[in-house]
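Entry 12.
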Amino acid sequence: MRAVQYRTVGSPPEVVEIPTPEPGPGQVRLRVTAAGLCHSDEFVMSLPEGVYELPLTLGHEGVGVVDALGPGAAGVSVGDAVAVYGAWGCGVCHACARGAENYCPHASSLGIQPPGLGAPGALAEYLIVDDVRHLVPLGDLDPVAAVSLTDAGLTPYHSIVSSLDALPAGSTAVVIGVGGLGHVGIQILRAITGATVIALDVDEEKQKLAREVGAHRALHSDESAVAAIRDLTGGVGAQVVFDFVGAPPTLEIARQAVAAGGRIEIVGIGGGTLATGFFSTPMGASVRAPYWGTRAELIEVLDLARAGAIHVETERFTLDEAPEAYRRLHEGAIRGRAVVVP
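Predicted 3D structure (tokens):
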């Protein structure tokens, strides 16, 4: 089969021919119908040698059709359309029992890695899923439109749901970064909260996208943004700031824009850190770094999409075009999310 692999540290990914995998006991093989590209993939390819075993088939956003069942696998049938829940854990601890495998405390020590983030990923013609519990029915959703919801939808949804009590009518939410995750986050905020949504981005086209998907205001993400947010909130600041970039400059905006008793959700992995405490963040403000989401939340995200409440802006590529898609992703030239269709 053909796959997109990261093979050499410092080099771009390559399209290669590798053996088609066979499912082992309890495993499921999918014929991939769509796979999403993510800035997290770029992060993986920026790491030094030895962090991940290479070559690595990329792609942690995947949907497909069940193609083959390994011995003992049950609960799905050949031909079923499914989405892959990518945050794989041990399956037996307290967190996993709640469906929160994204916070499994044992995954690392057991060598359990998500597809595309250690295990072979979805940027291939076929994908092995380790357990049926990591599959969610896709139903009648279009694979290309839905695949990025497994991360670009699930990650902001998890972050927003965790802050729902701080976002009643009359509250303000700031979204920093209107990329793959941010533009979905705006839609989720509009769908399930009463907050006024202020979006920030350095790119005017992405500010336009923010307005198109529901932001009440879209501002340039620079030193003027904090004063504008304070002015729009009567000097109070935002109850929650969702930073989908996570770089030092955006975290500084978040620190200055959050209200007393508010929350900062650092969703992006832009390499920044934020000190909190007296004389740093406002009194009572909390700082959190959420990771992915739960399986139950993925089901809810797909239900929101099925109801027409959210969608992902996508650009479609073939498997051969995947390296070019990564180049454009690096340059910030993708509107929404890049999706590869094998």
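Annotation: The chain has a mean pLDDT of 96. The chain has two domains: 2-151+293-341, 154-288.
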